[in-house]
Design a protein that fits this description.
Elements (H helix, E strand, L loop, with lengths): L3 E8 L2 H6 L4 H15 L5 E6 L3 E8 L1 H5 L2 H25 L8 H20 L12 H12 L11 H20 L2 E8 L4 E7 L1 H18 L7 E4 L1 E3 L10 E7 L7 H13 L3 E7 L7 H17 L2 E6 L2 E2 L7 E2 L3
Antiparallel strand pairs: 1-5, 1-6, 2-3, 3-4, 4-5, 7-12, 8-9, 8-10, 10-11
Helix pairs in contact: 4-5, 4-7, 6-7, 9-10
């Protein structure tokens, strides 16, 4: 996967902008950089402050993921599913048909949920999806759980494949050791540049920085870091009838298109806005989706898009979207 220098925008809440209304330069050149500097511990290393920028290093420690509660829970429930899947497969091979008991299906549903939670917390693990061939994954499943796969027994197999990819990826990265990721922060435009990383490493890193700064509860309050998009690709379907666009409070000038999303948070001083668009009662939603894409252009470029959802699920296709890079 290609490595680039990806760009993100740091945004503060409206009450901070009001507090420093006549001292914006002080906010940008001193208050925010000092908050970032003071946030470094096990995550940040060697922060260096210069006149108009600062640099720091993030440690990407894969052992931390392997030791996390989310990962341990996923492995435990997946092992239970594998045992039951093996029993179902053996019964099928004996000519007794395929029978999924309710407990197995319930457990599988919980396991899929746990897997999604893990991937949302440790975004870098999404790289495992395209890392290994199907034959490699099947061989590892059969080695881990000691049975021969029969693709006729479909329920649970996809989950086992996905989790096995995660296991293989984590083992490989832990063997490679801790990775250092260099990050630059520009005071004037509040831009973070995460250097020489894949898209998933960049997404994982900015979330870590955001969490670390917010955990400090500093003078800049709760901050939000968003990708600066050159193009946003959405995972949409012809049946999709509602889309929610979540934006942060604007930390700069707006314009007519952006006002559609940001007018109310600007009036109310809300820290973010959630705008839901409902498709007209037409057979085809193509025009609706095209107009949604148009609305996203300017807030995406300005770094104000927090998320885009449909029915509570993120629909941003990060792999095919274009985050600004240099």
């Amino acid at each position: 996967m290609e490595k680039r220098n990806f760009i993100f925008k740091l945004n503060v809440q409206p009450h901070i902008l009001k507090k420093y209304y006549n001292k914006i330069d002080e906010l940008k050149s001193q208050v925010i950089p000092n908050a970032i500097f003071n946030a470094y511990n096990d995550l940040f290393s060697n922060p260096i402050i210069e006149k108009d920028k600062m640099s720091l290093v993030i440690f990407q420690d894969y052992k931390e993921i392997a030791e996390s509660e989310e990962y341990r829970n996923l492995i435990k429930i997946t092992e239970e599913i594998a045992i039951e899947y093996k029993i179902i497969t053996n019964e099928y091979k004996k000519g007794n048909g395929i029978h999924y008991n309710p407990d197995f299906l319930f457990k599988l549903e919980n396991a899929i949920y746990d897997r999604k939670i893990l991937l949302s917390k440790f975004i870098v693990l999404n790289q495992a999806n395209s890392r290994y061939t199907s034959s490699q994954v099947y061989e590892e499943i059969e080695r881990l759980y000691d049975f021969n796969i029969d693709s006729e027994v479909g329920k649970g197999l996809d989950h086992l494949r996905r989790v096995t990819r995660i296991i293989l990826y984590l083992e490989e990265q832990i063997q490679n050791g801790t990775e250092d990721i260099k990050v630059d922060y520009s005071f004037g435009n509040e831009i973070l540049t995460i250097n020489n990383v894949t898209i998933y490493e960049a997404l994982d890193s900015y979330k870590k920085i955001e969490t670390q700064i917010n955990d400090l509860k500093s003078d800049i309050g709760y901050i939000k870091i968003n990708p600066v998009y050159e193009n946003i690709v959405l995972n949409t379907t012809e049946n999709m009838k509602s889309i929610e666009i979540i934006t942060t409070y604007p930390n700069g000038n707006t314009d007519d298109e952006l006002d559609i999303l940001l007018k109310l948070p600007m009036i109310t001083d809300a820290k973010e806005s959630r705008t839901t668009f409902i498709c007209p009662d037409t057979v085809d939603n193509k025009d609706f989706l095209q107009k949604i894409q148009k609305i996203l252009i300017i807030p995406g470029i300005k770094g104000y898009i927090i998320d885009i959802k449909s029915n509570g699920t993120t629909i941003i296709n990060f792999l095919n979207s274009v985050i600004k890079s240099k």
